[in-house]
Amino acid sequence: MDKKLLALAVSAAMIAPAAATAGVKVYGKAQVEYNVVDVEGQDSEQSVDDNAGRSRIGFKFSEKLGGGLTAFGKVEFRIDPADHTSGGTNGTAPGLTDNGTSGANALGARDAFVGLKGSFGAITAGSHNAPYKIAGGVKWDPWAATHLQARRAGGMTGGTGIGGHNGFVRNSIQYKSPKVNGFQATFLIAPDETNAGGTENSGDDGDNDYSVALSYKNGPWHAIFAHNRNNNSSANGGDEKLTKLGLRWKSGMHTAAVQYEDVSNADRVDSGGSANGGQAYRIDNENDGDVWWLNYQFKAGNNIFTASWGETEDDDANREFEYWAAGIIHKFSKKTRIFAGYTETDVSGGGADDSDAWTVGIRQDF
Q1: Domain at 32-50+120-365: CATH architecture
Q2: Structure-derived torsion over alpha carbons of residues 340, 283, 243, 132, reported in degrees to the nearest 10
Q3: How far apart are alpha carbons 306 and 293 in whole angstroms?
Q4: Are the beta carbons of 102 and 53 closer than 8 angstroms?
Q5: CB of 219 within 8 A of CB of 182?
């Protein structure tokens, strides 16, 4: 076992009782998959990994300050039980083709922030998941962070920073409203002029990038709206903008969801990790396009049978990626599950190759 990771695990185990007393909660997830990936024109490859980035360890903390005010925060790190390397040390989720070669460290930075909450809602500063990313998106996809996931495979945008459904927005401030009659709003801004905002590498193009999401829940219905603006004035088409609408219905044994994304002047959504076999199923830089995703789940006892379909259209390149996945999730308990399934992405118009993958995995939350 990696010595740094072993030392961290031992230290966490020793401090956990004291941390709980002090208002600190240690939590995490560990996931490993065995998968076989077949890309058109290439030999199939098998691997044992968690290169989709589900495994993590984190610390949540809080302190009641009186007058209805609470100080709180979290610090979370990515881990890889299979490789003991992060591939995510730059703060972005690794691609499925990483194989642990892009980083020698056992830990990779995820979200970390500190803030205050009360009757007014919550305000935090640090590194966050963009509201766009977790409104619907990865929260609705039962295959998120597995080889069967929709993002980067043709069913959802990927992208780092304030882009689509990958990575984190650094140097940011976020406000989350209280829930009022089923409504809740979240707004994030990255105003840091000294570090080029949330996404850019140099200059001031990244200043004041923002992401906003609005959620409404009523009975079996959950509706979302989200919008991102990545200030990228150096691009030929101007700022990158993403808009998302989604609707989910959940009743008894059945869950169904639909999500639509509109992408204008792609920038960050043309970055980040690739899908199975290293294929780039995304809208090209400075192009426009849209993305559809549908999902259905049927729960029978401790089993969830689920199927997803998605389509990414790159309007300017006249290219289309069609994604689908199907499989079963068996939950031994609230913390332990096994899963298995098949996914395929078909390409029309070039730019990548068709691919398919089989996977079986196990995950434990702690």
Answers
A1: Beta Barrel (2.40)
A2: 50
A3: 13
A4: no
A5: no
> Which residues 6+ apart lie within 8 Å of 125 measured at CB?
113, 114, 115, 172, 173, 174
Question: Is residue 4 helix, strand or coil?
Answer: helix
Determine how β-strand 69-78 pairs with β-strand 169-176.
unpaired
* Residues facing 75 on adjacent strands: 59, 112
What the block records as the tokens of 44 is 């199939």
The residue type found at 96 is L
Nearest-angstrom CA–CA distance, 145 and 22:
32
What is the full per-residue pLDDT of the chain (366 aa) written as tens digits? Answer: 455 544 444 445 444 454 444 589 999 999 999 999 999 999 999 999 998 889 999 999 999 999 999 999 999 999 988 876 544 333 333 444 433 334 445 678 899 999 999 999 999 999 999 999 999 999 999 999 999 999 999 999 998 888 889 889 999 999 999 999 999 999 999 986 554 444 444 444 557 899 999 999 999 999 999 999 998 755 566 889 999 999 999 999 999 999 999 999 999 898 877 888 889 999 999 999 999 999 999 999 999 999 999 999 999 999 999 999 999 999 999 999 999 999 999 999 988 999 999 999 999 999
CA distance 291 to 282: 9
Query: What is the DSSP code string of 96-132?
Result: TT-TT-S--SS-EEEEEEEEEEETTEEEEEEEE--HH
Task: For residue 91, give the DSSP letter.
Answer: S
Instruction: Specify the amino acid at residue 323.
Output: Y
State the Cα–Cα distance between residues 204 and 163, nearest whole angstrom. 17
End-to-end CA distance of the chain: 20
Q: Is 68 exposed, middle or buried (0-12, 13-18, 19+ CB in 10 A)?
A: exposed
